[in-house]
Amino acid sequence: MTSTTTRVLRLLSLLQDRGYTGPELAQRLGVTDRTLRQDIARLRELGYPVHGTRGPIGGYRLGQGATMPPLLLDDDEAIAVAVAVGLAEDGSTGIADIDHSVKRALAKLERILPKRLQRTVHALREATAVGPATIGSREPDAPVPAETLATIAAAIRAARVLELDQRQVEPYRLVSWQRRWYLVGYDLDEHSWRAFPVARVHRVAPDSRRFAARTPPDSDLVAFVLREVASAGWKVHARVTVLAPAETVIARINPAVGVVEPVDEHSCLLLTGADAMETIAIYLSMLMMDFRIDGPPELVDHIRALGRRYRNAVAHL
């Protein structure tokens, strides 16, 4: 690759981030103003819409054009796009044309990734399962650094023990659900299977020890995570008796909403949770079934408040 080509690619990379003045670009590239203008012209000939404005606050920026020119991605951006596109492919959008385009985009990106980045992307994709989509969630996002996910995925692939904060864990599967990440692992300190919320982990480091695979707690580790989240993974929890058969309730709710236990042929116990008591109250109103609150008292207060609002909303009719 010639020095001119390298410089033009560097210029394109800079313009994709934000706008710059001419002197700023010339200084960062180590060229004269004349050479900068020549490189800008080369980018325009290649189809990149580089807009320039004059004046003391003028400069250059990359705008929208009539065609789609190639993009430059750094390592972190390439990994993020490849993993995100791969997860979209695994989850399927349900739109035929888009699903086909997702597959083609992923194939193109993987063909040009360097081997070292391909290994990271493949490790993440192989280690990750996608949970079911749910509608109307009000739970906040819990973003996780890409480096953390890459470290966990590499440990899963190598069957290497991980240190999660102060815990020793055998990692088995990453699960992406509701814009959150969970690690299914065997806790060597508590000798139990757990679904660890990755966003709550402050330190992740691979151990030198390797481990032999254990029999997983469930053939479907996504289902295992959903049950763990429903029973223990939320900030607040509730016990509700639903006056309907267990199979009717199970068919009505998403598995992540709660765990259903039969009481008799006409009723069942729903163990549910969320990050806020108000969310549980809304979930219950969406059941469209009669129910009785067994606890906690705070949920009773929220249900009473909702009841008053509903009554007031129709009082004038």
UniProtKB/TrEMBL annotation:
Keyword entries, A-Z: DNA-binding, Transcription, Transcription regulation
Top-rank lineage group of the source organism: Bacteria
PROSITE patterns assigned: HTH_DEOR_1, WYL
Domain Helix-turn-helix type, first and last residues per copy: 7-61
Record bears the keyword rRNA-binding: no
Molecular function in Gene Ontology: DNA binding; DNA-binding transcription factor activity
Membrane-traversing stretches: none
Domain WYL: start-end pairs: 163-205
InterPro entries: CBASS_pafABC_assoc_protein, HTH_11, Tscrpt_reg_HTH_DeoR_CS, WH-like_DNA-bd_sf, WH_DNA-bd_sf, WYL_dom
Protein name: DNA-binding transcriptional regulator
Source species of the chain: Nocardia jinanensis
